[in-house]
Amino acid sequence: MLAAAAELLDGEDLDSATDAALATQLRGLWVAICRLQAQLSRRVAVFDERGAAARDGARGIRGWLRHRLRLDAVEAGRQATVAAALVTRPAAAAAYLRGEISAEHLAAIDEAGWLLGDDAMDRGVERILLQHARREPPGRLRRLSRRFRERGGPQEAVDAFRRVRAHRFLDVVRAGTGAVNIRGQLDVSDGELLLAALRAVRSIPPARGPDAAPGSLPPPETGTPELSVPDGAEAPERARADALVALCRAVLRTNPAEAGRGLGDRARVVVTVPLETLRASPTGDALLGSGEPVPAAVARRLACDARVLPAVLGGAGEVLDIGAETETVTQGLRRAVELRDRGCRFPGCDLVAAECEAHHLVHWAQGGQSIVDNVALLCPYHHGLVHEGGWQITRDPYTGTVRARRPDGTRLDTVSPPPE
């Protein structure tokens, strides 16, 4: 039906159309586009609610949209946000489904909800914003929301500040030009701190060298996130936790000679695990250095890229014999794999190499070798998906193609080797 309508429009002679006719068509087409967009949002919301993205190997709906619909990171995030607003803002969602407002209008009204709070929205603010949305662009809705916030009392101002702070984020995106675009949001106090720091930096005399003329580069464009809020950014506390873990991982991988205080290039998470457990026993005890138990699958994941210290323990846990510490993935092997893979090799994931872990396709405890052909980079999420989620990945040693299979054995898309 949609294809037939598009073909019908393709056949129209626009050169003979009057200005008035074109204006009428433009308005009608825009309403139709908004309604179609709303139907897309409905389906995104249902797909997300079912957890279908995770079953397809994606971290969340944003990652699925990027991979399956070929959207950039910002657009995928916008689609996910608008889909979620269909549930939280039913009145605005109904107008969106009728084509009375656009997806961006709905996003602006949803932003007002977390800026002003549900109580304010229920007291009539949402109704007022919706009235304005039917005749004004989204930017004016956002300005109107800020004015509503300024009119509130002291407690309302504090509540608004906390809601804004809970939605702070940072995206660092590499554009097609090679430039890095930064997008984020801070609360007013942290934002002022950033502005003060920028003013201080600007006061330092610039280094000598030619300055690029303003506007010499093309406009910023979106692309692959180098460091971004993970999927599930609708839960800011989870995004912050993941960011903190990524920061710790980066620090603990620092070369001791560069760090100056011997931090080492692997996280010193100590796990004591029987050899039989590493050899894919479905059960078995593994203990962290703190004494807390961890599942066998987690122990195998941690042992994929670790320093191994073989030891013989007595019945009471005393050390009877101890061997030499070895690395399952040496620095040289890691660099070689990074040069080949460039990032996570799981289909649909493009997390950069610096944030990935080395995975033994055949675990070394099962006889797998620590060589380039038996090691692949996986991001922490997909590394966990393989070890704890029952997924399997294989790599063709001749073509470099990586294949992933779900726990039920069905195959996910293949991924060819990175471009030269």
UniProtKB/TrEMBL annotation:
Domain of life: Bacteria
Protein name: HNH endonuclease
Family of the protein in this entry: Belongs to the Rv1128c/1148c/1588c/1702c/1945/3466 family.
Organism the protein comes from: Virgisporangium aurantiacum
Keywords: Endonuclease, Hydrolase, Nuclease
Pfam families to which the protein is assigned, alphabetical: DUF222, HNH
Molecular functions per Gene Ontology: endonuclease activity; nucleic acid binding; zinc ion binding
HNH nuclease domain location: 332-384
Region Disordered, annotated ranges: 206-232, 400-420
